Amino acid sequence: MQVLDTPAALPAEVPDQGFPCRSCGTPLRYSMVDLGSSPPCQNVVRPDQLGEGETYYPLHAFVCHTCSLVQIDAVVPPEAIFEGEYAYFSSYSDSWVDHARRYVDEVADRFGLGEDSLMVEIASNDGYLLQHAVAKGIPCLGVEPAANVAEAAVARGVPTRVAFFGEDEARAMRAEGLRADQIAANNVLAHTPHLNSFVAGLAVLLADDGVATVEFPHLLELVDNNQFDTIYHEHFSYFSFTAVERVFARHGLVLFDVETLPTHGGSLRIYARHAADATKPVTARAVEMKAREQAWGVDDLATYAAFAEQVRETKRGLLDFLIQARRDGKTVVGYGAPGKGNTLLNYCGIRTDLLDYTVDRNPYKQGTYTPGARIPVYDPAVISETRPDYVLILPWNLRDEIAAQMSHVREWGGQFVVPIPRVEVF
Predict the structure, then answer these.
(1) What's the pLDDT score for residue 210?
(2) What own/partner pairs with CB < 8 Å and gap ≥ 24 does 154-161 have?
(3) What is the pLDDT of residues 8-66, one digit of tens each?
(4) Side-by-side strand order, sheet with 415-418
(5) Cross-strand pairs, 236
(6) Distance of CA 364 to the CA centre of its chain
(7) Reduced 3-state DSSP string for 293-345
(8) Sheet architecture: strand order including 140-143
């Protein structure tokens, strides 16, 4: 990575607070953005817990000047986030379930998956994806660490193994005779603090001619579109194609193709194979993505220097809107209680003095309070009862889906608001 001599062109250097890069081991020295401290974003606060305190953890993203991986320290152990009861269920997003269905159709056709194949999904959640493999008659297995979510998958007819995935778990699966023709890992790579173990596990579990696909929000979109609220304790790393290629190569895996996706504000789906598998040549799309990232400045520290001020300005803009709405006698409520929403609420210091409540389709979250901000979460039907002037869409990546579901808000003159990349009323 190019290290410039001009201090003003560099991210803030914090030599005494860094930690080793989880990809290459280099001591981290450069801060990309400091979002203060907040509770883990997928926690829920139940009414009987309102009198109890919460544990706040630092939320500070660094960039590695050796391999370009952006990451936070694993101050919250993954077991504390995912074991036991986990509040995120993928199937409550219709568009995400449809995305999964299209994925299964596409890879089944492209790679000839059928009744003699094995599809494995890492972090399979409630079976939102593998249910489509079951419907097509493709043998499958989910690996999911959250027991309560895994139960929902099994109830849906999806065989599920309750475990954290890594090299040891992959070797145990292989010892049981399991080799995957297709591995899907959607929005999970960011969730592992043990990045090298996870990728090594993919290499162990993948059949000699198999394909692993991994989806993750694209770092370029995060920076260019100010998506700072996607930084939270559950996401330990933030990936470019370049950084992912480097860690996969370390474990004998080649990224031979890549797709850009609209999901989560702009994502990549990478296709990996064993280095010895010559049947899948590297595509023009993969070559072009590497070139695009180099032109963007993925290996230049100066690329990351302005992000922190972008974030601060977004905070000011959102608070200006909410404060002015209050002064004008307007009511503002939220839609959704996602992880990104909790980062936004806590970093901006938004409480019920500015946001009356939020709603969520997930019954698990209804009747609870958001972590830190302690904003009550209700059923979406409450919006029709209170008829607010504005609905702030916290999962802004689903703005079109939510605006369509809640189109009746316009009947009383209500408007929708998204906070990212900047405040927009529509």
Answers:
(1) 98
(2) 154/127, 156/126, 156/127, 156/131, 157/127, 157/131, 158/124, 158/127, 158/130, 158/131, 158/134, 160/124, 160/127
(3) 466 767 665 568 999 999 999 999 999 999 998 878 899 999 999 999 999 999 999 99
(4) 377-378, 358-359, 332-335, 390-393, 415-418, 424-425
(5) none
(6) 20
(7) HHHHCCCEHHHHCCHHHHHHHHHHHHHHHHHHHHHCCCCEEEECCCHHHHHHH
(8) 160-161, 140-143, 119-122, 180-186, 206-217, 267-274, 253-261
pLDDT tens per residue across span 63-112 = 999 999 999 988 876 665 555 555 556 666 777 788 899 999 999 999 99
**How, if at all, do strands 415-418 and 390-393 pair?**
parallel
Q: What is the DSSP string of 149-218?
A: HHHHHHHTT--EE-S--SHHHHHHHHHTT--EEEEEEES-GGG-S-HHHHHHHHHHHEEEEEEEEEEEEB
Distances in Å between the Cα of 84 and the Cα atoms of 145, 236, 268 are 8, 20, 30
Instruction: Tell me the backbone φ, ψ of residue 196, rounded to 5 degrees.
Output: -65, -35
- The residues near 42 (Cβ < 8 Å, ≥ 6 apart) are 81, 86, 87, 88, 234, 339, 342
Tell me, rounded to whole angstroms, the distance of Cα 107 from its chain centroid: 22
Both structure tokens of 263: 């999901």
* Tens-digit pLDDT profile for residues 186-222: 989 998 999 999 999 999 999 999 999 999 999 999 9
